[in-house]
Amino acid sequence: MSWKANLVRIMTGIMKYDRKMAQKLTSPVRGPGAFVTDDFTKKVRVKTWDISGFRGVTINGSYPKNLHILMLPGGYYTLEAEPRHREIAERFALRDHMRVSVLEYPLTPEYSATDTHHVLLEAYERLVEEYSEDRFFLMGDSSGGGLALAFLQQLRDMGTLPMPVRTAVVSPWLDISLSNPMIKIARKTDRILPVEELQVVGEHYRGSLHSEDPLVSPIYGDWNHLGPVLIFAGTEEIMTPDCELLMERAKTLEGTELIFKKADKMIHDWILLRIKEADVTLDLIAAFFLEILEEKKETTQRI
Hints:
By secondary structure, this protein is an alpha/beta fold. The protein contains nine helices and eight strands. An eight-stranded mixed beta sheet has the order 1-2-4-3-5-6-7-8, with helices on both faces. Strand 5, helix 5 (143-158) and strand 6 (166-170) form a beta-alpha-beta unit. The radius of gyration is 18 Å and the shape is globular.
């Protein structure tokens, strides 16, 4: 564990960060967002688009491959994306030459899950049509990870759009109710996430949907035929018990390969920190996506 990561871990407890997070969740701030065109590095090309009044961006570095990440930023379904999300998108575009699209999807309390999924589906349809030669990946952190996994199941059930070839999520929110009994133990070391306030946010987000509806709690859905899915979670966060529960349920899946990596002493959504462990995790995600190039090469050689 790097000294920076350990320092952040200690300071979140000293500064009672969970109380500050509770205040943020109670009164979410709305602004221009983290994906304003002028805020991107000049090394990438930025294209903006709009879905029902919600902004999206697609960025390219030099010589992009026909590999396309649809990135869903976390924020507990109520907070806007952070500048670090923009940096992560730029990282994949510049270092790995992948095209990256980011959707600023509808947030609660103004909107509910049905609104969010409607806009996300429309965005995906548009991207698939416009970039018809691309192979798509889904990526999300925190609530964005939960949304990505719920959307993946929705696409599989629809059967009318091409499925993402691979999915990677970090600290995904799998059960909107946070009702797993093991969370009571996990919260003793989670100094970031306030359970009660998150449960209130979850109630707003699910709207008229049942708390076990896979659109808001993907852990309760059908996990067959979703392709390779890479899941990261830290040992010091309340989202991990549901990730572990999912892996127990996933022993007899068909058409789905679940890969779970538990990061020792990592706090919730650590990829948003500028620490060595975040870089390692992002490198692993990039390698996981880029593996399909080797698979295609091997298939071509066999033919």
